[in-house]
Amino acid sequence: MATSAVARDVVFALRQKIAKIEGTLAERLVSPAGGQPVAGLLVRRNGHASPRDFFLPTGVERLDEVLGGGLPKAALIEIHGTETRNAGAAAGLALCLVSGMLKERSRPRDLVLWVGTTEMFREAGHPYAPGLASFFGISAESLLLAEAPKAADVLWIAEEAARIEEIAAVVVELRGNPRSVDLTATRRLHRRAQDSGRPVFLLRQSAAPEPTAAPVRLVVTPAPATLRQTLLGPLAGSIGAPVFAVEIGKSRTALPGSFIVEWNPDAHTLAERRDGSENRIAVVSPSRGRAHPPAQAGAVLAFKPAAGEAAGNKPSREQHPAHRRPRRTG
């Protein structure tokens, strides 16, 4: 009976691969056993179907269905930011996934290692511990930071840390496309994640797509947030929950797709936002007993125009002799 169940799961996984080639979404297939759409199953190298706990659900129902059950838990997962100025969005999604995984594990001694290059931290800054605790439920005691001058050193630290049982997840943050981040290096990271049964997130800021061993690549850009909802309605000038535009850039089991997801900082969950006016964060009462800020006196300019500036932005007559002086030759 067990052998036939495994064979049925393997056949269903093969049907999913055929559906991907034919252009049919994998979640439209129906399992022959229960008659209901179920999460897809990956086939390992030894021919056995992977168990259900192989996946790391994102919490976004439609995204998990397209991915065949969620992100692979014991694997290298790529998260790409298209531009350096969007580093916060890519790092924010990585923190959302780590927070959801820690919530599922519910082990108080779990640690998270965030390792990056000196260039990356100088450009985007270090993770802010108070913000991680309030927004993602990751305490400062559970966060480990490591900084290295070269990308090769960062990869070595990540490989060694993936072996440690107390480290629940490893986040590797790099900028651009270093030569050391090739197929060989990513294969080592992917194998370490498989052996430990925990994910390694490869956070690549301002990087172009290139071949890696990661089975899934998510491209993240910031999306407009809604206003905070109060008892009196939307709070003007406020910023609501973080919103991310997520695109499946690469997947071995899913078709390409785009999603707008919103993070709930109170429940520490991700959800798809289909209505731009909807806000899922907790409703708070407006502030009372405070005076309104004074109105602006006028427009603020970076540079004030010169008093004696001539028409057409041309230099005045007093400036012409200086421009006519001969240039230095040595």
Automatic annotation (TrEMBL):
InterPro entries: ImuA, P-loop_NTPase. SUPFAM superfamilies: P-loop containing nucleoside triphosphate hydrolases. It comes from the Bacteria. Residues 286-330 are annotated as: Disordered. This is Protein ImuA. It comes from Aminobacter carboxidus.
